[in-house]
Write a structure and sequence with these properties.
With 205 residues, this protein is α+β, with helices and mostly antiparallel strands. Among the domains are: 2-98, no CATH class; 163-200, no CATH class. It is built from 2 helices and 6 strands, in the order αββββαββ. A hairpin with a 7-residue loop joins strand 3 (23-34) and strand 4 (42-52). The longest helix has 105 residues, at 58-162.
Amino acid sequence: MHRAVERRQGSLTLPIAVQFNGTARQVYLQVRPVDRPDTAPAALVLFIEGDEIAPGEELDAAAVTRDDGAIVGQLYEELHALRVRLKTSLEEHESASEELRAANEELQSINEEYRSTAEELETSKEELQSVNEELQTVNNELKLKFEGVSRAHSDLQNLISATDVGTLFLDPFLQIKRFTPRVADVFNITAADEGRLITDFTPIA
């Protein structure tokens, strides 16, 4: 059994004298390893009946049987040790299965968190796209307003340049904003004086 389970090798014993209805016969014990996936090691035990033992050989057969008693005891000890190792292997297998099951559950939890994070990122992406579209709309509106203001400013500048009336534009603090060329007939003002107080200038006599 030890050879079949540990070494995965078959074996055949020498003839063993066994009494059958008062007649001694030879019996052979054959052990073969059995390969079964995902299970504990196993072996197939065959008892092969041999020839009868002559009466003159019974004493020798009995001696062989007595000698085999020690072998059988040794085999029982090896079988017990094998059972202990098998039990330990089963416990280790169960422990490994529990660890694998816990790792699988943890992996599933991580996968769910990853899926939730991916959904949140997708939602944030859609929100950012919506905000970006709104910003583009506002930017287009501001661009149109700026173009309108630029045109109005250009028209005002053209009007100021073309008018023959002296006109002076001041802000609430009496600072010069702009003026028509004919203002130079009243005040000694140049384009560099924009932003200065009108009180800094005196009319031309």
